[in-house]
């Protein structure tokens, strides 16, 4: 399911799914087992949720159905407000976007080979929004209130130059 969600609305080949599930040495029964897994997912998600196309399986996900979609939309709104120099409103939207996070991205599968790159990319997105929210808070005059948070973030991510610059401010 995680592989299909990461590629939502795009075909995922059977080979890619088999590789994600079993790695380089899949059992001889892998194709049959994959079909059984997809069948179970269809029962849980609904019969039209997963289609078989020439390129593979496609998980149909409507815009806004995933937390990630909502996160990206709300973050985009925050960035637009920040660009319009509406710092307080931008900070509120960026906080709302960050509130959708419930811990590390793909925490249940992060050690699976297919998930590590995706989890890193999602974490990068989250950190970008945190930095933008800090910019908005700085623009709202909340300098002193941010020092502790930025110091913690710099300790956690010492090579993020933007955070170091924000701490200097």
Written overview of the protein:
- The chain has 169 residues and is mostly helical.
- The protein is 64% helix and 5% strand.
- The protein contains eight helices and two strands; from the N terminus they run αααββααααα.
- It is elongated, with a radius of gyration of 20 Å.
Q: What can be said about this structure in brief?
A:
With 169 residues, this protein is mainly α.
Question: If you average the pLDDT, what whole number results?
Answer: 93
Output the number of helix runs. 8
Largest sheet: 2 strands, antiparallel
The helix fraction, in percent, is 55-70%
Classify the secondary structure makeup into a structural class. Answer: mainly alpha
Low-confidence stretches: none
**Straight-line N-to-C gap:** 44 Å
Strand line-up in the sheet with most strands:
1-2
Residue share in β-strands: under 5%
Task: Summarize the SSE layout with pairings.
Layout: H1 2-6, H2 14-22, H3 30-45, E1 50-53, E2 56-59, H4 67-83, H5 87-98, H6 113-139, H7 143-156, H8 161-168
Antiparallel strand pairs: 1-2
Helix pairs in contact: 4-5, 4-6, 5-6, 7-8
Structural descriptors:
169 residues; elongated; 8 helices; 64% helix; two-stranded antiparallel ribbon; mainly alpha
């Amino acid at each position: 399911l995680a592989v299909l969600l990461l590629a939502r609305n795009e075909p995922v080949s059977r080979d890619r799914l088999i590789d994600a599930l079993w790695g380089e040495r899949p059992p001889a029964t892998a194709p049959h087992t994959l079909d059984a897994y997809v069948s179970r997912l269809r029962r849980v998600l609904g019969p039209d949720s997963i289609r078989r196309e020439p390129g593979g399986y496609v998980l149909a996900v409507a815009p806004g159905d995933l937390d990630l979609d909502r996160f990206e939309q709300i973050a985009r709104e925050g960035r637009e407000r920040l660009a319009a120099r509406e710092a307080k409103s931008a900070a509120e939207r960026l906080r709302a976007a960050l509130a959708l996070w419930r811990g590390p991205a793909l925490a249940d599968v992060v050690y699976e080979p297919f998930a590590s790159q995706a989890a890193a990319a999602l974490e990068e997105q989250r950190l970008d929004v945190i930095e933008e929210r800090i910019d908005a808070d700085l623009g709202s005059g909340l300098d002193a209130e941010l020092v502790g948070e930025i110091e913690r973030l710099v300790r956690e991510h010492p090579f993020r130059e933007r955070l170091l610059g924000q701490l200097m401010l």
